[in-house]
Design brief:
This protein is mainly alpha-helical and about 550 residues long. The protein has three domains: about 180 residues, no CATH class; about 180 residues, no CATH class; about 170 residues, no CATH class. Helix content is about 50%, strand content about 10%. The chain has 14 helices and 16 strands. The chain has a three-stranded antiparallel β-sheet with strand order 12-1-16, with no helix packed on it. Helix 7 packs across helix 9 and helix 12 crosses helix 13. The protein is flat and about 110 Å long. The N and C termini lie far apart (about 75 Å). The relative contact order is 0.11.
Length: about 550
């Protein structure tokens, strides 16, 4: 009997924690309604609405998980139900039997000559009756509780299903609004994009590790611009993050990886096999060379690096040359635009790497791949289509660090290319501020203001180029004060100074997601892509953010 009661108690207790609070469902319903209204508003902040929607999705996911647990417990309860029904029948029969005995015992007591013994029998029978009654009540409550839980479960599933439909609808609307905003506002015109490309080209960022200078990082050079507080935007890696990461390969080799493991980390490939080394590679402005003599003249990575890096680079160089020239049918240039080539062949470790990988080439689908590479990816590998080139099957999107990363500090300590001098850099400088890329609080406020203004009125975009250069649209460029005045005339708070900037990032994809700004004009958030585009258009001199993953620093 004790085991039965204990079993019943355990089963009953199992159900109680899994009731979903009605107020939580009601709160989520109210928040979705509020989200719907805010989304329809004229001053909707889509970035903040997206954060709210994601929070709602997380809470719904928690409720769904609770329902799954509840379904498991209901299944357990149903499996025990037949036993409970049998127990109920047995206890009911016992109850009525003992009730009758108890009634007879009462008459016996009144007529008994041994009152003490009769009372003992009477109370024993009463105890059996009470025990039967309690067990019957527990079984009935169990069955009723199970029925209530099943009914509640169906109601909750219906409510959650309706909420999910509404959430999906709002997600589509919000996604469409964000895309529309990006297309209408954040997306720069062809002329603006061309100006930014020219501005970036003036930075002289080398693709090749062999000609890599040091990023003149304002975190390490110690130069004081002469003002404080100050802000700078730091990019992870150089612009071309496709294929082999040369400093990443170095980090992988130092971690014990061989050339094949390294290459498979950076390319989607079928095999690495020997090609015809008699193929002639014609180099623009030079002679033709057989494949091996050509590779001996490639100057892409320092010879002091680990031999496995040199082997990986030699194989990538062969593959690139064969793919670029269509197996020798065309010619190839001698600069970083193709591969760095010099007449004098390299010797030493590079020659050893070429000999030990004699003729090896990366193949996919039976053809050599165009094995792109660059010096520093910043902890992430991107496919060719992601950086604006034609999409290819042999390039990939992947992480390039040890273990997992959940913060900028994690990335700085785990990325394979973290030792590159261009891993984390604020690009550009101004002579009047000691050749630094630091910005004053009001200069960063100016960037925030122009984004607010162009979002409010896209017709203003031709007035929002950088003030220290001629206006390329042939009109006047609005300065800091003029932009603030235009914002106020439209009933929008303007920033005069920024006190803090933080950047949020998706460390799964390797992209900054939002830029959050606080200042005397309040708080606001921009999508990272939107902020990057307008920062690059407005920032003075040649100061630039040169990639999808960036962070802000304040000193």
């Amino acid at each position: 009997m004790r085991k039965i009661l204990l079993f019943l108690s355990i089963i009953l207790v199992l159900f109680f924690p899994f009731f979903i609070r009605a107020d939580e469902l009601e709160n989520i319903t109210k928040e979705i309604e509020s989200l719907r209204k805010d989304l329809a508003g004229k001053e909707a902040n889509y970035q903040q609405l997206n954060i709210r929607l994601n929070n709602i999705k997380t809470r719904v996911a928690v409720l769904e998980a609770e329902i799954v647990k509840k379904e498991v417990e209901v299944k357990k309860g149903e499996e025990a139900l037949e036993y409970q029904k049998t127990l109920l029948n047995e206890r009911a029969r016992s109850y009525y039997k003992n009730v009758n005995k108890s009634s007879l015992n009462l008459l016996t007591i009144l007529t008994s000559s041994n009152l003490s013994e009769s009372l003992r029998d009477f109370f024993y029978q009463k105890a059996l009756v009470d025990q039967d009654k309690n067990t019957i009540i527990k079984v009935v409550l169990y069955i009723k509780n199970l029925e209530d839980i099943k009914a509640n479960l169906e109601t909750e599933k219906t409510q959650l299903s309706a909420l999910k439909v509404e959430i999906d609808a709002q997600s589509k609307i919000l996604s469409g609004q964000i895309n529309q905003t990006r297309n209408q506002i954040a997306q720069l015109s062809a002329r603006q994009q061309d100006l930014i490309a020219q501005k970036q080209a003036s930075l002289g960022i080398s693709r090749s590790a062999s000609s890599l200078g040091r990023c003149d990082s304002d975190l390490t050079n110690g130069r004081d611009p002469g003002f404080s507080p100050r802000f700078a935007m730091f990019t992870y890696g150089v612009p071309n993050r496709v294929g082999l990461n040369q400093f990443g390969a170095k980090g992988r080799a130092e971690a014990g990886q061989n050339y094949e493991t390294i290459l498979r980390a950076y390319y989607n490939l079928d095999e690495i096999k020997k090609a015809d080394t008699n193929i002639q590679i014609r180099v623009d402005g030079h002679s033709s060379y057989n494949l091996e003599d050509y590779v001996r003249r490639i100057y892409e990575v320092p010879e002091s690096w680990p031999i496995e890096v040199l082997k990986a680079q030699a194989i990538a160089a062969r593959s690139y040359a064969l793919a670029y020239t269509n197996n020798g049918s065309g010619s190839i240039c001698d600069s970083e635009s193709c591969q760095v080539f010099h007449e004098e062949p390299k010797t030493g470790a590079w020659d050893q790497a070429v000999r030990e990988t004699d003729g090896l080439v990366i193949y996919q689908g039976g053809s050599p791949i165009k094995a792109w590479y660059s010096s520093t990816h910043g902890g992430y590998i991107f496919s060719s289509g992601e950086i604006g080139w034609s999409g290819t099957s042999w390039t990939k999107h992947a992480s390039d660090f040890e273990g997992s990363v959940g913060s900028f500090s994690d990335l700085a300590s785990k990325a394979y290319d973290r030792d590159s001098p261009w891993f984390y850099c604020d690009w550009g400088s101004r002579g009047e501020y000691n050749k630094t890329a630091w910005l004053k609080p009001q200069e960063l406020a100016d960037v925030a203001n122009i984004i607010l203004l162009v979002k409010a009125d896209s017709s203003t975009r031709d007035h929002l180029y950088q003030p220290d250069k001629p206006n390329p649209a042939g009109t006047d460029t609005w300065d800091f004060e003029k932009v603030k005045s235009e914002l106020r005339s439209r009933g929008i708070n303007a920033f005069s100074s920024i006190s803090d900037v933080t950047v949020s990032a998706d460390f799964g994809s390797g992209r900054s997601s939002s830029v959050n700004i606080n200042g005397d004009g309040g708080s606001t958030s921009f999508s990272a892509g939107e902020f990057k585009d307008w920062f690059n258009l407005r920032a003075p001199a040649n100061i630039q953010i040169v990639g999808p993953l960036f962070n802000a620093e304040k000193r």
